[in-house]
Every structure is written in C-alpha cells, then in structure tokens.
Write a structure and sequence with these properties.
Elements (H helix, E strand, L loop, with lengths): L9 E7 L3 E8 L4 E2 L4 E4 L6 H13 L9 E5 L3 E2 L2 E2 L14 H9 L3 E5 H12 L8 E7 L3 E7 L2 E3 L8 E2 L2 E2 H5 L1 H6 L4 H19 L3 E5 L19 E3 L6 H15 L1
Parallel strand pairs: 1-5, 5-8, 9-14, 14-15
Antiparallel strand pairs: 1-2, 2-3, 2-4, 6-7, 9-10, 10-11, 12-13
Helix pairs in contact: 1-2, 3-7
Bound molecules: beta-D-glucopyranose.
Length: about 260
C-alpha cells in the first residue's frame, strides 16, 4: 500500500473575501462544518502579506492534523495558484501566487481556487445541484457576479461570465446584487436585468440547471419566480458555507490526483 498519499474524509476550507476571512474544518462525507467557523476581518489594505497573515491566524485557531488538505477561495481568476485578477482585494494580488504566500504563513501546502468555483462546486456535491447529471451553471450574485460550471461532476474553472459584455455593459455592473442596491431597483426592476442576463447565458451555454447563490439568494422568492427561462433555476442551499466547503472539497480532490 502506498504511504505517500492519505485519503481524508476531512479538509480545511478558508474563504477570503473583501470584508472577512472565514475558515472551518469540513466533514467531506456530510458536506458540513466539523466545528464552528472562525472569522477575522480582512486587513486593510488587503495586500498579500497582510491577508496571508490573517489566514494563518484563522488556521492556527484550530488543532489540525499536519497533512490535512487546505483550500482557500479567492475573489479572482486563479490559474495554477496564481491570481490573474483581483475583485474587492488589493491590486497587488495580480500575479501573486496565492498558494505560495499562504503556504509561507501557515506552514501548510494550500490549494487556491476562485470563490465562485468553490461555492458552485460545493452546491453540486452537497447542495442544490447534488446528484444532477449534465451541465450545471452556478451564478453568485453579490458585489460582482461569480460564475461556475460543473459538467458531470467536473469543474470547468475560471469562467468569468459576470464580465460578459451585454448591451454595451459589463454584465455584473448591471445585474449584480450591488447594482440592485446602487440603482435602488425594485425586485421587478432587478428581475428584468437578471432575465436579460440569464436568458443570454442559457442561449450560449444550454445548461441543464442554473443555481443562484450569493447572500441575496435567501430572498429568492422575491425574484426567481419573476424569471422566464427554459432552464430550471433554483436557489443555492449552502449559502454562506458554500465557499469554505467547496474550497475544502477541491483541496481534498487535488491532494488525491
Ligand atoms: C470576479 C470573479 C469573482 C466574482 C465574485 C467578479 O468580479 O471577476 O473572479 O468570482 O466577482 O466575487
């Protein structure tokens, strides 16, 4: 038997966002936290060294096995560990190897993924798209729009469909939850924008299911019924926990391959 790789039923997930850094150990069988999560505010300015130090503070508040897989979400395109963009975090992240800076402060090997990829992957494993075959598109509506596509259980990483140009605009600048608040839209007014956005997405991608996440998804009854799409569209189930759970699951997956 190989001793070099251990398969875990547990992993640790960390969600790095513009305002908070949250972490918890995750029970991967159940798809839920194995202990209460710990949150620290995102340091300002949110430069790589400062954020990585805060991440270490979160990790160190738990007594974790040395080789537990550790996953972090980051609000940016993450290509092979390197941030290629930066949404709501300091621009100095662009070109930074997130995995390396966090490994340095935590003393652990780390797997970094885009925030929407983590949340969407968690929904397909344990949440609203659990057991769904085919193409699942997950969109998180928040400050921006994060998107994730999972095809028969396989994640297609870094789909930046929030930045699709639609009617001459960056789509997220009109359809994100922050645009609803900024423009003081009614639910109907916002739903018109979402209708345009999701209809366009379904015309291009032909998903089998669309899952809508982000904080506003808990108010789904106010806007999802107003949408007229051919694709079934449902609210996310894991809510705020999705990022941490997805990061942990993807880290465990990466450790196995
Ligand atoms: C970024 C994505 C991110 C999303 C949600 C977008 O502005 O480009 O990488 O997933 O916001 O945070």
């Amino acid at each position: 038997m190989s001793t070099s790789k251990k398969h875990h039923t547990g992993a640790f997930g960390i969600d790095i966002g513009g305002s908070g850094i949250k972490g918890a150990p995750v029970n991967l069988k159940a798809g839920e936290f194995a202990a209460d999560r710990v949150r620290v505010p995102t340091p300002q300015p949110s430069t790589p060294e400062q954020v990585a130090t805060a991440v270490a503070e979160v990790v160190d508040s738990f007594d974790l096995p040395k080789d537990i897989p550790v996953g972090v979400t980051f609000p940016a395109v993450i290509q092979h560990g390197v941030a290629r963009s930066a949404a709501n975090v300091d621009d100095s992240w662009i070109g930074t190897n997130v995995e390396k800076v966090v490994a340095k402060t935590t003393g652990r090997s780390v797997h970094a993924v885009n925030d929407a990829d983590a949340a969407g992957y968690a929904e397909t494993l344990y949440g609203a798209a659990r057991g769904e075959a085919g193409t699942v598109l997950i969109a998180t509506l928040g400050t921006g729009i994060g998107t994730c596509m999972v095809v028969d259980g396989t994640l297609v990483p870094n789909l930046e469909l929030g930045h699709l140009e639609l009617d001459g605009f960056d789509a997220e600048s009109r359809a994100a939850e922050s645009a609803r608040e900024r423009d003081e839209l009614s639910w109907e007014g916002w739903a018109e924008r979402l209708q345009r956005y999701f209809r366009h997405l379904e015309d291009l991608l032909w998903p089998d299911l669309i899952v809508v996440g982000g904080g506003v998804s808990k108010k789904h009854a106010k806007f999802l019924p107003l949408l007229d799409l051919r694709t079934p569209i449902v609210p996310a189930e894991l809510r705020n926990d999705a990022g941490i759970i997805g990061a942990a699951a993807l880290a465990a997956h990466a450790a196995k391959v």
